[in-house]
């Protein structure tokens, strides 16, 4: 009988994660992992300088000001950065974090994957008692029709009975303005008895973000300006006519322009010119 009880106790211990030891917050960035719960420090954040993000001036200035307010202990809003792929949404979050830290604020950033949203209440419990302030960052956030993770997101946006920790703000990026596919919204609307109630709970998630920052496909001039900025920052010198012709040819083969396409072209160009590039 005793051995049976011991096996049961062992199984329960394996099912219930041990309490997370008090983490050290010496690093500037962390990644949240589960099984077991832990905050893993990031030795070097992959990011570009804020000055190199071209064509997103309004979003840049708005997010930077909001983040400054938060870092200074003033009221600030959760932010949803949505729109075209490859236009620098996640790059902007990381660049703004670095810029505000450079101004003397001890601001940390914690990356949370969409798959780990169910554990967000435990993460907020860890961050709530910390002596510093945190951007909780979820990249490429979206939900499918049978996805229940969106319910966990409310713990960040609304905070439940305890409220969102005063030292935590939530920034998310998504290709979708309402965090769910348009065809899914239309299908559920048509199938529901009360069409407006069918999707209201999920669509209202985006309404809980105080800031909506839209990102749209860039023009050719903006695309070329991005490449010029990368070349200047990394010391790649190429004749302007050649640079323009090769850059336009590159985007034509990719079927579109974006900040990501500009960076990919620049990496190829730098390699051909024998220039090492980090980032």
Describe the structure.
It is built from ten helices and seven strands. It has helices at 2-15, 57-71, 89-102, 120-128, 149-157, 182-191, 195-207, 220-234, 240-254, 259-272, and strands at residues 29-33, 38-41, 79-83, 107-111, 133-138, 168-174, 211-215. The protein folds into two domains: 24-215, P-loop containing nucleotide triphosphate hydrolases (Rossmann fold, 3-Layer(aba) Sandwich), CATH 3.40.50.300; 220-272. β1 and β2 form a beta hairpin. The mean pLDDT is 84. The relative contact order is 0.13. The longest helix has 15 residues, at 57-71. With 279 residues, it is an alpha/beta fold. α2 packs across α3 and α6 (182-191) packs antiparallel against α7 (195-207). It has a seven-stranded mixed β-sheet with strand order 2-1-4-5-6-3-7.
Record keyword descriptors for this entry.
single chain, 10 helices, alpha/beta, 13% strand, 279 residues, Rossmann fold, globular, 7-stranded mixed sheet, 2 domains
Overall number of strands: 7
Order of helices and strands: HEEHEHEHEHEHHEHHH
Mean pLDDT: 84
Largest sheet: 7 strands, mixed
Radius of gyration: 22 Å
Helix content: 40-55%
CATH topology tier name of the largest domain? Rossmann fold
Low-confidence sequence ranges: none
Principal-axis shape equals: globular
| Number of H/I helices | 10
CATH architecture of the largest domain: 3-Layer(aba) Sandwich
Beta-strand level of the residues, as a percent range?
5-15%
Number of domains: 2
Strand order of the largest sheet: 2-1-4-5-6-3-7
Distance between the amino and carboxyl termini: 60 Å
Structural class: alpha/beta
> Please, what is the CATH homologous superfamily of the largest domain?
P-loop containing nucleotide triphosphate hydrolases
Q: So what's the CATH class of the largest domain?
A: Alpha Beta
